[in-house]
Amino acid sequence: MEMQAEAERKKRAQILESEGERQANINIADGKKSSVILESEAAMMDQVNRAKGEAEAILAKANATAKGLKMVSESTILHGGAEAAALKVAEQWIHAFGNIAKEGTTMLIPSPTGDASAMIAQALTIYKKLTPVASGGSNASAESCQSSTEEGKSAVGAGHAVESPKSGAGKVAFDADSPRKGGSLSFSLQSQE
């Protein structure tokens, strides 16, 4: 009888020990599961927060760009605004060519890079193509647009034309009175043949 009681105690001890191991394994598994869930939720929140931040940054840039474009648009309507915009485009065009020369890149450029007046003429032509024509049929007056080059020593202003000293480069003509008379401002590249 004593052996039977001893066997019963050992059996209960083994059952209790196995139950304890089982519960410990369950607790460890639940802990790992909770850890994985919390990590994934944290990653999701991180992505959501980053996306919101990027969206706000994009909106802020878009609003700033829109305000800048509105200011530029309003200033081009004013007297001399189109000429200032044309001058800025020409400056940026020349600056871009200067940056190309600094780098060790090879590019095919459809204009003579040594002729500043031809580059300005091309920049102004591109500007004219990109600007919409106003309802009166003209873009704006060109009275105050001034430019000079060392090669041709030409000035562009009211009723003037710039001709490139190199053959085939082109010509830009401005008629300041034409827009007031209902005509159109003339930016053209013409062959010198």
TrEMBL record:
<dbReference type="GO" id="GO:0007005">
    <property type="term" value="P:mitochondrion organization"/>
</dbReference>
<dbReference type="GO" id="GO:0005739">
    <property type="term" value="C:mitochondrion"/>
</dbReference>
<feature type="compositionally biased region" description="Polar residues">
    <location>
        <begin position="137"/>
        <end position="149"/>
    </location>
</feature>
<comment type="similarity">
    <text>Belongs to the band 7/mec-2 family.</text>
</comment>
<dbReference type="InterPro" id="IPR032435">
    <property type="entry name" value="STML2-like_C"/>
</dbReference>
<feature type="region of interest" description="Disordered">
    <location>
        <begin position="137"/>
        <end position="193"/>
    </location>
</feature>
<feature type="domain" description="STML2-like C-terminal extension">
    <location>
        <begin position="71"/>
        <end position="130"/>
    </location>
</feature>
<dbReference type="InterPro" id="IPR050710">
    <property type="entry name" value="Band7/mec-2_domain"/>
</dbReference>
<protein>
    <recommendedName>
        <fullName>STML2-like C-terminal extension domain-containing protein</fullName>
    </recommendedName>
</protein>
<dbReference type="Pfam" id="PF16200">
    <property type="entry name" value="Band_7_C"/>
</dbReference>
